[in-house]
């Protein structure tokens, strides 16, 4: 298992002009690591919808890679999105599932089936082009460059534990400034 913040630090070194759609705790950690990254659409407040939002961006902007930093608990709320994404075949969608086995944003309660559930297997069954699991930082570092270029949809279940607690910047993440910054950056890219 790898720490999510260390994993995201590696990802941040590779992100250039992709749209990033992080959820809940992943959003807080991404914001702490890349607070200046305007192409971040914070998906907080609609648990389970990040994959659907990312699909919308991927279809609307086929010229841009879209990275969703989904939670395992969040994705469980909307498993049907895997089938919808696979049927639409967005070549520019990279779907990371932060697999920590819990509803972290809601008190750390375990997700159902956490010991036998495979999001990679679900994605393959739904029709994703590629699905994999990564559980070490070395493996993530070795694969991230290729993943960002690989035609999708691609799902990677990141086997994670929480990192150092980031500052909880709810005012920015929920605020109008974050949306305005994203909207401006999207129009300019």
Tell me what you see in this structure.
- By secondary structure, the chain is of the alpha/beta class.
- It has a single domain (2-188), classed as Rossmann fold, CATH 3.40.50.
- It has nine helices and eight strands.
- The strands form two sheets. Strands 1, 2, 3, 4, 7 and 8 form a six-stranded parallel beta sheet that branches. The chain has a two-stranded antiparallel ribbon with strand order 5-6.
- Strand 7 (130-134), helix 7 (137-147) and strand 8 (154-161) form a beta-alpha-beta unit.
- Helix 1 (4-14) runs parallel beside helix 7 (137-147).
- The longest helix is centred in the last third of the chain and has 13 residues, at 176-188.
- The chain is globular.
- The mean pLDDT is 91.
Helix content: 40-55%
CATH architectural designation: 3-Layer(aba) Sandwich
CATH class: Alpha Beta
What would the CATH topology be? Rossmann fold
Individual helix count: 9
> Considering the protein shown, what is the CATH homologous superfamily?
Thiamin diphosphate (ThDP)-binding fold, Pyr/PP domains
Order of SSEs: EHEHHEHHEEEHEHEHH
Q: What percent strand?
A: 15-25%
Secondary-structure blueprint:
Layout: E1 2-3, H1 4-14, E2 19-22, H2 24-33, H3 50-60, E3 66-71, H4 72-76, H5 80-88, E4 93-99, E5 102-103, E6 109-110, H6 119-126, E7 130-134, H7 137-147, E8 154-161, H8 170-173, H9 176-188
Parallel strand pairs: 1-8, 2-3, 3-4, 4-8, 7-8
Antiparallel strand pairs: 5-6
